[in-house]
Amino acid sequence: MKNLSPRILFIFKMLCVYSFLIFIAITLLLPCVWLIESAFKNVGEIFSPTLTLIPESVTLENFHKLITYTSFLRWLYNSIIISLSYMLLGVFLCSLAGYAFAKMNFKGRNILFLIVIATMSIPEFVTIIPVFALMARIGWLNTYWALIIPGVAHPFGIFIMRQYISSIPSEIIEAAIIDGSHEFQIYYKIIIPLSKPALAATAIFLFLTSWQAYIYPLILVQTSDMYTINLGIAQLFNSAMTTYQEGIDFGTISAASFISLLPILIIFIFLQKYYIAGLTGGAIKG
């Protein structure tokens, strides 16, 4: 009995912990589940007094109306182009900066790195007017460049890369220098292959940052053909709330929101281990 009591107490604690975690998970996932199943319901069933998580009759009518009556495919195309470009260019710049801060000795390196990290505390709203004025002056308003270039060298991406690259033994780099390799050769032949988890984590973070952006596209985009998927969904919601337009209802909005969630779900399902490895690797080894 003396050995049994601690075991029972441990099992009870684990049950409590897992019950709490399951409750939190259900609370967080329930709105997403409601959104997904609403995409396959008709409007009458969405607002039915009886809450049902499984549609009584599955329909694709919402998706048909979304594609037929809106410019959703154009918005989706814009978001894909912008997010992929932002991710690829951002990974390149963040890895270059991370390598410089981690392995290159130059005057003021630590101060510059602290300044880069400090910029993460600046609210997004503070930079809206300067960014808008700059984009207007160089003629980039209502272009892909305005939604890609500002902030592409993200300070958090630089932080991830710097922390991870710091864990790479300097002896490898010194040996490469002795063999006659220049800095860029060291970067793409040594640093890049050894930093794949951090590169994956940075890529995922940058893609999601761009895909979920709303404030900057709202300010910098001026025509509907340049809308991102988030601006398009907001337009659909405003249209449904103010005056009913043919083909636009909350079922259509649910279908659009469901499609916008798919890239995020796919990324986290298939690349979650790389994201965690990149973050924890930099934290532990850095």
Features:
single chain, 286 residues, mainly alpha, MetI-like fold, 73% helix
Q: Mind explaining what this structure looks like?
A:
- With 286 residues, the protein is mostly helical.
- The chain has helices spanning 4-38, 43-46, 61-69, 72-103, 109-118, 128-137, 144-148, 155-165, 170-178, 183-194, 196-211, 215-220, 229-242, 250-285.
- Helix 8 (155-165) packs antiparallel against helix 11 (196-211).
- It starts with a helix and ends with a helix.
Tell me the β content. under 5%
Low-confidence stretches: none
Question: What is the CATH H-level superfamily of the largest domain?
Answer: MetI-like
- Ends distance: 47 Å
Nearest-integer average pLDDT: 85
CATH architecture of the largest domain: Orthogonal Bundle
Query: What is the number of helices?
Result: 14
What is the tally of beta strands? 0
Subunit arrangement of the protein: single chain
Helical amount? over 70%
What is the CATH C-level name of the largest domain?
Mainly Alpha
Radius of gyration: 24 Å
User: Which geometry do the CA atoms define?
Assistant: globular
Mind summarizing the main beta sheet?
none
The assigned structural class equals mainly alpha
In summary, what is this structure?
With 286 residues, this protein is mainly α.
List the helices and strands and how they pair.
Blueprint: H1 4-38, H2 43-46, H3 61-69, H4 72-103, H5 109-118, H6 128-137, H7 144-148, H8 155-165, H9 170-178, H10 183-194, H11 196-211, H12 215-220, H13 229-242, H14 250-285
